[in-house]
Amino acid sequence: MADPILILGIPLDFILFGFILFGIALFHRHTLAIALIGLAVIISYKIGFTGFKFGMGVAGLGHHMEHEWVTLANLFLLLMGFALLSRHFEESRIPDEVPALLPDDWKGGAVLLVIVFVLSSFLDNIAGALIGGTVARHVFRGKVHIGYLAAIVAASNAGGAGSVVGDTTTTMMWIDGISPLSVLEAYVAAIVALVIFAVPAAMRQHRLSPVVKNATSGLRVDGARVFIVAAILIAALVANVTANLKFPALLDTLPVLGLAVWAAILLTAFLRAPDWKVMPETFKGTIFLLALVTAASMMPVEKLPAASWPTALGLGFVSSVFDNIPLTALALKQGGYDWGFLAYAVGFGGSMVWFGSSAGVALSNMYPEAKSVGSWVRNGWPIAVAYVVGFFVMLAVVGWHPDAPH
């Protein structure tokens, strides 16, 4: 790999990536085209000038994609599969029953965010966000505030931050030999953050559209669809735990989690056919995320600043615009972090912008109005405040205890 071209001391790779992010923020109705054009420009630049981490020219690109394909395939299969899961869940009619179980006032919205948080602690955070978004559509009769949508994503990311089965980044740590107990401490910060952003988000949602309590009379839950939803979620959980405990090497060669989800979808299709109509729009959102993740993986980030709590804090803000998977991989390679802090930072930090996490992209496929950086930041600003406060509460209560490089 050749040295990158520098402009005012900044590698041109980062400038090109910055233009992609700027374009997405400015022209949110054309995010897919911007991401794909930006990725094509970056690939062309690297083929023609600097090469890739694993070689020069087209051969270098091939080796790079060989290294990244499992991550990309997993994201593709999960985003597409969980979109079908959310439709099964919606058509099961369970979301229509939820309003009767929630408090009448703003606390109903807050309780729903807590439910999303808990679900994401043992499910993938994409599934947690989509289930939360599906319930919100029924609870608030389709009038969901963009600040509340941001809060759903934040709750799903916060719930997955302290669990090695709740987020891709924490699963990466588990695969790399980090103890699940080392990651568990992230919940100190995550719970504090949840309280801080959930209350204003729920109050704002209540002012826009309160919980609708009158459930449809004579409602009958579709048991077959409930079974399908449970089967898909259990398949994902069992595949994740089994692969990590028994066959960790398999995770580097096959998209195990995504394949398990799709196996469950196809094997249960005879009970109720999936709603394939959601696939075209979901496909667009998925390709958008994969384009960003691929572009991020090509950036010349060979090492991070020295491991410290200020570095971990900063990585949370970086994760809002830069994919957290390569950041986590670099941190694991470098070592010397307190892994609970890193899990919270890269897991929850992505909530500050809609495309900063896979959960945000998945929910934005369901609610296209969320695909505006300006609206997301303007209405979801309590999330950034919650991130910082949660981090420093954790620093005061738990303290920074870095692990030796492993």
From TrEMBL:
Annotated TM spans: 5-26, 32-49, 69-89, 109-134, 146-166, 186-203, 224-243, 249-271, 283-301, 339-361, 381-400
One GO MF annotation is: antiporter activity
Top-rank taxon, per record: Bacteria
| UniProt-listed InterPro entries | NhaD-like
Offer one example of a GO biological process linked to this entry: sodium ion transport
Q: Which UniProt keywords apply?
A: Membrane, Transmembrane, Transmembrane helix
Q: What is this protein called?
A: Sodium/proton antiporter, NhaD family
